[in-house]
Amino acid sequence: MRGRRPDTLGPMLIAFSVAPSSTGESVADAVAAAVRVVRDSGLPNRTDAMFTTIEGEWDECMDVVKRACDAVAAYGNRVSLVLKADIRPGYTGQLTAKVERVEAALERSASE
Q1: How far is the C-alpha of 60 from the C-alpha of 54, rounded, in Å?
Q2: At 19, is the secondary structure helix, strand, or coil?
Q3: Which residues pair with 13 in a beta bridge?
Q4: Contact 89, 1 (CB under 8 A)
Q5: 83 torsion bin: left (phi>0), alpha (psi -120 to 50), beta (else)
Q6: Are 65 and 81 in contact (CB under 8 A)?
Q7: Angle at 102 (CA atoms; ends 61, 52), nearest 5 degrees
Q8: What are phi and psi of 52, to 5 degrees?
Q9: Helix or strand (DSSP H, E) at 108
């Protein structure tokens, strides 16, 4: 696929963080509502302390992000969204494969 222009903008990984603005100290309930949307979507996903990452086609990923923002909007009058995308046509399973490649590199360097 290298050097070819893709016909579509997917599959992709999207890492995003969504939270209500100006709601006080804890946003756990609002973030939980967004994560619930993600998990109910059926897309491969992973949540950590800073971001939730999903994998899928452009339209389905953007739909999940929008619905997660809608869920958070119920907790305040302003929503903050940070989004980063890795668009790599022709590749799937990258949610786990990218981490596996880094872990393998760490193992190789530890044994040298």
Answers
A1: 10
A2: strand
A3: 55, 86
A4: yes
A5: beta
A6: yes
A7: 30
A8: -115, 130
A9: helix 94-110
Beta-bridge partner residues of 20? 79
Q: Are 54 and 61 in contact (CB under 8 A)?
A: yes
pTM: 0.85
Cα 12 from Cα 83, distance rounded (Å)? 12
pLDDT score of 4: 52
Assigned fold of 12-110: Alpha-Beta Plaits (3.30.70)
Encode the chain (112 residues) as per-residue pLDDT tens digits: 455 555 567 799 999 999 998 767 789 999 999 999 999 999 999 999 999 999 999 999 999 999 999 999 999 889 999 999 999 888 999 999 999 999 999 999 988 8
Tokens 């389905």 -> residue: 60
